[in-house]
Amino acid sequence: MRSHFSTSQSGPRAPSEAPVRLPASIGKWSLKPGPRVITAKTIFDYMDGAGELYLAYRFRQLDVYEYSAKGGPDILVELYWMETSDDAFGLLSGDWGGEAVKVQNRGAGGPKIRLWPRALYGAGLLRIWSDNLYARVLAQNEDAASRKAVLGIGSAIVQGRRDPPPPRLAAAMPATVEPAFRLREDRLCYFRSHLVLNSAYFLATSNILELGPQTEAVTAPYAGPARAGTKAQARLLVVSYRHPAAALKALARFSRTYLPERKPAAPQVSAGARSVLRIEDGWLGYQNSGPFLVFVFECPSREAADAFLTQTTRSITGMEGSHE
Amino acid sequence: MNENRIVLTRRDFVRGTVAGVLSASLPGAAAQQRRAARAATVILVRDQKVMSAANQVDVRVLRQMLKDTLLQVTGKPSERDAWLSLVKPDDIVGLVPTPHLNPTHKELVDAVRSSLVEAGIPSANIRGAQGGPDQAKACTALVPLPALKAHWLTGIGTVLKNYILYSGEPSRYHDENNAKLGAIWNMPHVKGKTRLVLVDALRPLCDKGPQPDPRYMWNYGGLIAGTDPVAVEAVCLKIITEKRQALRGEPWPLSPPPLCVAAADETYGLGTSRLSEIKIVRYGWNQDSLV
């Protein structure tokens, strides 16, 4: 790695944030002049059809760099600057697939992350969550040299940056739920938008939970005990709203849209509302607690749905203050 | 957001009531009180050698695949006869590739153009027609050339989405409104102009599209073609779905579900989305065809 660096300074970052210093060359690759700066206004010119994903996570700016090499594939470096570390975590949480790799971060300490990796590599693509930065480093054709270069660039990206913990709402998801349900950490998704929810777990064609930039949510499947040769499973969804009133309003809308048969019975959406009922794909349960809504879908039994609601509500209401 | 409009939920898919809800929720669609039985043929031509280990296209192999595809689609004895059964020499032929983010391979667009010229279509009458409504208006015949890919907002983003810019208001067809994509094919400046749908399945993307992610791309080495856009899309959908299941070793359905495919059939009457009504003709390499 040559000792010359290109410093990504174009992003509107907070004064305390470490800039990213990309190496001017690595292996046979040389950094082209850059970056190309993409804003919320221009993101659809850069990636029509994909920009919504980043906007859904409170996107600030994207810096795009390219490395080229004679006789080798280009390496694309995309630095997505987000509002918070939680937003960058959310982008990585869209897919936990790939090989968890350790990209060096010699300049910053920080707590160990119990559940989730910070960098994932697969088939030439490295994805990194580093504080409020989400990075993609992509070599179109993978070989040993490009892998080494991609990982080297990844190490340069995280150098000196903080490693905040994962979103507390994600960490509050119960690891197990009685009697024998286990969180699929590799399928947990943190998000703010119904578009992302629908890509993880399709609920409805409209934003019936009134999600948005000011809400945060987590969903994950839970693997259950095997019965008659098939494994039971359930889907947990937790949403945190800014105010208890927003949570109740969203619950009322959910009930009207998703459970229309309950209209005549005037569904209960008062504070602390809780219900478990059987629908086409299993037992559905929901519970309100202050600004939180907890949902469980596709549960194999009423008892299991009850356990999900009780344990999850206890866990999220016991969360400590925000780390952001 | 208007809460009074009809919303499809997960429960509609479980209950199998999607088609009815779609028809009720898409005003202006061609009402189909009783959907008549349909039949369509989709051609799948594959060659293991068309893509190199470095993901480069072998143009010679691709050109042969194109010829095979045209002959299979039309039943004609030559490439020239095949094209002339699809377009007239005085047609203005618009080629409509996927423009970026896993774009259609340029080699395929070039091959189609060359093949048309050799068939007697004047070069000046062949144009790139991806873009706004004026692009479609300027053409008398259209040949969509989309690349096969999953799409994180619409499930699949291949055939039906290929004309989205012809609407002049693409944002009206994004997100959950993708069910309305079929309406674009019935717009006056588009309707009836599509002569052949030819999908670039050389190196598809089965998840996280349209942004490229090489973990979900593979060298399938295929061209998928037909004259029924919905049937071609349905076969594409089957390939993507099967590939996802093969990757994970368990069902991995597209999410969100690709509403546009069923709606194009049930609501807009563009063709059939039912595999039971589609005859798939396979030609060439058959390993891991997924369909």
Observed structural traits:
heterodimer; A: 324 residues; alpha+beta; Protein Transport Mog1p, Chain A; 9-stranded antiparallel beta sheet; 8-stranded antiparallel beta sheet; 19 strands; 23% helix; 34% strand; elongated; B: 291 residues; alpha/beta; 6-stranded mixed beta sheet; 3-stranded parallel beta sheet
Please, could you describe this protein's structure?
The complex is a heterodimer of chains A (324) and B (291). Chain A is of the alpha+beta class and 324 residues long. Chain A is built from 8 helices and 19 strands. In chain A, 45% of the residues are buried. Chain B has 291 residues and is α/β, with parallel strands linked by helices. Helix content of chain B is 31%, strand content 16%. Chain B contains 9 helices and 9 strands. Chain B has helices at 10-15, 18-25, 59-74, 79-86, 106-118, 133-137, 181-185, 229-248, 259-266; strands at residues 40-46, 93-97, 126-128, 141-145, 147-151, 155-156, 197-205, 222-226, 278-284. Chain B has a 6-stranded mixed sheet, sandwiched between helices. In chain B, strands 3-2-4 form a 3-stranded parallel sheet, with helices on one face. In chain B, helix 3 crosses helix 5 (106-118). The longest helix of chain B has 20 residues, at 229-248. Chain B is globular. The N and C termini of chain B lie far apart (40 Å). At the A-B interface, helix 6 and helix 7 of A face helix 1 of B.
